Amino acid sequence: MSTIKDVAAYAGVSVATVSRVLNNKGPLSEKAIVKVNEAIEKLDYHPNILARSLASGKNNTIGVVISSFNDPFWSEIAQEIENAAREKGYHVLYSIAQEQMEQEVAALEELQTRQVSGIIYACGGDKKLTQQILQQCGVSLVSLINAMDGICSVISQDWKGGVLAARHLIAKGCERVVHVSGNLERELSANGRTYAFMEECKKRGIDCRLYENKAGNSASTDMLRKLINQVFYENPEMDGIFLSNDIMATLCISNAQSQGTRIPDELRIMGYDDIRISSLIYPSLTTIRQDFKLLAQGAVEMLLDQIEGREPSKLLEIPVELVERKTT
Question: pLDDT, tens digit, for every residue of 148-171?
Fold first, then answer.
């Protein structure tokens, strides 16, 4: 493996010159920059990031606490965080915490022992307890998806998503509507989509029945399928259903098709998130799109504002939009 001394010798410059080129610091001639970059490419030199961070006192690594990589929503968010961080010259270190407080505390502690410069917290546990723990975090911090008092947060306009979903189903002629939410006992920003949907239905005089997915993101496919089966069994006359994520909506499509229910003629189905599979299934799913790219970019930029000494925003709300496809 090549060293910085090898690069300097090959380029015919000093080690200090190579260091200045790598860190883009100090006076440098164009000739020296070209020579050093040619040597780096020829020798396939890769800087020791840990050594550089110890020497400079700055670690260009951010940590991310996320609920799961198995859930397409979180994996797509994670990919966008990776992209946004890389564009800013930062690396990402992930830790998984499946909505269990002990895991979330352990994940935060682990990332801090890795000396990350800051942490993006993207989990949905107990809001009050989580907030207390996050406020004790020893590095710069941003809460993604869930707004936390006193902590810089980036969220989607979920209340608007709920209104859009209700108005769309009503405009399509739905009169007997069901909504399947997440676990409303957790004080999550995502609950806003449920409250707004129910309120809009009430204002329009539309009958709406509510079911909760008590297990939240930790629900297995079998648990979700059992819940959807219950919804269909208890509501044979429903003509519209809005689900709080696209995974549950795809299970609804499957259930309806297995019973011979015609979509959208007899039943209109809406999801939430617009994960990639939503446009690939048949019939393609009408849903409320969260902008994963803008959410990730907002969280990374807000975190780097703190790390680099700029005044960050306290709350950033990313717009959502209705994506109409074949299920409505």
Answer: 888 899 999 999 999 999 999 999
